[in-house]
């Protein structure tokens, strides 16, 4: 999981909001972004705990 992927998804989410996309589409993308962020935080935590 990379921060680059998270940032790309965040940028896409902002574009959808600006374009006034349907709420369901924004919500779905927002949930995906949340999952990616949580996964990234878990990976980061595991990395530091293993050291």
UniProtKB/TrEMBL annotation:
Domain of life: Bacteria
Coiled-coil residues: none
Signal peptide, first to last residue: none
Biological processes per GO annotation: regulation of sporulation
Gene Ontology MF, one: protein dimerization activity
One protein family per Pfam: SpoOE-like
UniProt protein name: Spo0E family sporulation regulatory protein-aspartic acid phosphatase
Protein's organism: Natranaerobius trueperi
Lineage: Bacteria, Bacillati, Bacillota, Clostridia, Natranaerobiales
């Amino acid at each position: 999981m990379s921060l680059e992927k998270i940032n790309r998804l965040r940028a896409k989410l902002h574009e959808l909001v600006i374009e006034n996309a349907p709420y369901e589409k924004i919500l779905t993308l927002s949930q995906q972004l949340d999952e990616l962020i949580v996964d990234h935080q878990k990976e980061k935590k595991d990395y530091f705990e293993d050291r």
